[in-house]
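INFO batch 0412 | record 1 of 1 | parsing
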Amino acid sequence: MSDIQMGAVESRFADIVWKSVPIKTSELVKIAEREFSWKRTTTHTVIKRLCEKGLFVNNSGTITALMSREQYYSMQSMRVVQESFDGSLPAFVAAFTSGRKLSPQEADEIRKIIEEG
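INFO prediction complete | emitting tokens
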């Protein structure tokens, strides 16, 4: 599942689904028409793609999540660290913070996350 990728529009649509699950496909059609000017068929195609990717399941017209938004984005973050920094979290943090100084509060929050992790 770590190779699940979405484009920008799919991500925006998935965020709507995550905020609303469980949700009927008929309701998603209305939301997508309002938010993206999509036709019903487009909405159903995107729902099907996201279900095939393993993010959601469509059970008799009701969409539920197979993984949370947080799980998905955590997985994507780990993929970036693995692919771009050879799996080195310290190298990622160094690159992420280069060019700017962490505030004492940010540094404390990071220490807390590390200690709890």
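INFO post-check: The two ends are 22 Å apart (CA to CA).
INFO record closed
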